[in-house]
Amino acid sequence: MSLIPFVTAYMGNNYHDARAVALYGAVLFFCGSAFAILRSAISAHHRGNEDMLRYQYRTQLKNLFSIALYAASIPLAFVDVRISFFIFAFVALSYFLPERKLAE
């Protein structure tokens, strides 16, 4: 997580360089993986509550999907950096959508 400012500045200065964009995707991939591990530890504390387990399962699927997209953005940066930029924006925007459980 502490590498985010470095790679953001590096990518901001070299946004046409595929290596900079791939490095940014790699850091986001590792941050997403750490977040998924944290969510797993949190969901372990709700073993008795069936509704909360279903909610945790849905959010964990969203996290794993985001991690897979971040992993795909790394090699796709060498194809076209705009694809990776789209993936970064899509994942960020997907977390602004309210969760079903919270919206009810």
Summary?
This protein is 78% helix and 0% strand. The chain has five helices and no strands.
Task: Tell me what you see in this structure.
This protein is mostly helical. It has one domain (about 5-104). Helices cover about 80% and strands about 0% of the residues. It has helices at about 5-15, 20-45, 50-75, 80-95, 100-104. α1 (about 5-15) packs antiparallel against α2, α2 runs parallel beside α4 and α3 packs antiparallel against α4 (about 80-95). It is elongated. The protein starts with a helix and ends with a helix. The model has no long low-confidence stretch (mean pLDDT about 85).
Radius of gyration (Å): 16 Å
Given as residue ranges, the uncertain stretches (5+ residues, pLDDT < 50) are none
Figure out the total of helices.
5
Shape: elongated
What are the salient characteristics of this protein?
5 helices; mainly alpha
Task: List strands and helices in order, with pairings.
Blueprint: H1 4-13, H2 18-43, H3 50-76, H4 81-94, H5 100-103
